[in-house]
Design a protein that fits this description.
It is a multi-pass membrane protein. With about 375 residues, the protein is mainly alpha-helical. It has helices at about 1-25, 35-70, 75-95, 100-110, 115-140, 150, 155-170, 170-190, 200-205, 220-235, 255-270, 275-280, 305-320, 330-345, 350-365. The longest helix is centred in the first third of the chain and has 32 residues, at about 35-70.
């Protein structure tokens, strides 16, 4: 069924593509369709820089406005967002030396480039996003607060997005990662500053998943999770400059350390399959309750079992991703460093762990 939908969408998409391409080529003089890799790089760098400027400007204006006029209507903040988006769009049009219509076509074809691979990639990402939204709605309907396993579901969906993007279109993934991170920052500003009509809906979607690292006033875990898992990609600045960029193990370090390792560490450290408890640890007592013998054992609930699970699942996941030919000293060392970092951190682990893992890969790969 999924393949049939893909084919139907691709045919419909392809029928309208030729007329758009003709109009596009006649209205835009400098584009990435009639130029080479350097044109795509220039447009992406410009779009990333401008979007970050617009996002930061909107955040600063919103915080200042709400501080000076806390009881003011939310309409002005929504207008601020519209102005920030339009200003970014206009500035991007100036940088690519195109009119507003041509700029729209540039952005349109940056997303829908007419290839079957890009269409399938976008459909897969859309499916992951829909699953995450439906999962959040289901948890809201069934219980008041999500547990550790529920929260790690989002680690899985982001991991799938990153893995598929790295293998099929890493440059487009890097651009999408920046835009996704900016969107979540804006979402948290809307929720935190009680901007209507969004704040109540966002509270329902986000508050049920908070843990000890977040509070009702400020939820940074989703932002740190996105930033951490995309961090190895953001750190590799040569991706935006060199057409000879090659995919390496370090680009998956965010997925391995946070998406897989940290998820299994939390699940194994807090929950036990009854059969493992009976067979392996019946003489010790409750599985998942062997604390770390040093460091933050009095301030943290991290356990030896969770750390063991994190170390080995990173190696296993890397072997699966790379076809059982990725075992290397850098992988083992990175898994060890990220495991130790996770065991010693009480907060900020979604950002610090992938940073430690990526740095280890950069130094020893």
């Amino acid at each position: 069924m999924f393949l049939l939908i893909n084919r139907l969408l691709f045919k419909c998409f392809d029928l309208n593509l030729y007329s758009l391409k003709f109009e596009y080529k006649n209205s835009v003089s400098k584009t990435f369709m009639n130029k080479d890799f350097n044109s795509i790089v220039y447009n992406d760098k410009a779009l990333i820089g401008i979007s970050w400027i617009a996002t930061c400007s909107f955040v600063v204006m919103t915080l200042i406005r709400k501080r000076r006029f806390p009881c003011e209507s939310s309409l002005i903040i929504n207008i601020y967002l519209g102005l920030a988006v339009f200003a970014a769009y206009f500035l991007f049009a100036c940088l690519v030396e195109s009119d507003l219509k041509g700029t729209f076509l540039i952005l349109l074809f940056r997303v829908f480039d007419g290839t079957y691979k890009r269409l399938c990639l976008l459909l897969f990402w859309l499916l992951c996003a829909i699953e995450s939204i439906l999962f959040s709605i289901m948890i809201n309907c069934r219980q008041r607060k999500a547990n550790t396993t529920h929260r790690k579901f989002f680690h899985l969906t982001i991991s799938l997005i990153i893995i598929s993007g790295l293998y099929n279109d890493p440059l487009f993934l890097a651009l999408s990662g920046h835009l996704m991170l900016q969107i979540f920052i804006i979402i948290e500003i809307f929720r935190n500053q009680r901007i209507e009509p969004w704040s109540n809906f966002l509270d329902q979607m986000f508050l049920i998943f908070i843990d000890g690292q977040d509070s009702h006033d400020l939820i940074l875990t989703p932002i740190f999770l996105l930033a951490g898992m995309f961090l190895p990609l953001f750190m590799d600045t040569t991706m935006l400059y060199s057409p000879n960029w090659t995919l390496k193990q370090r680009h998956f370090s965010g997925v391995l350390s946070v998406g897989v390792g940290d998820s299994f560490a939390a699940i194994v450290g807090s929950r036990l399959l009854l059969i493992l408890k009976i067979v392996l640890f019946s003489s010790i007592g409750r599985f998942g309750r062997i604390p770390w013998p040093f460091g933050l054992k009095n301030k943290s609930c991290k356990t030896i079992e969770g750390s063991i699970a994190m170390f080995f699942t990173q190696i296993i996941a890397s072997e699966v991703i790379f076809g059982f030919c990725s075992l290397s000293p850098s992988l083992i060392l990175s898994a060890m460093v990220s495991t130790i970092a996770e065991a010693q951190l009480n907060s900020g682990d979604n950002l610090i762990i992938p940073f430690c893992s990526a740095i280890t890969f950069y130094l020893f790969e």
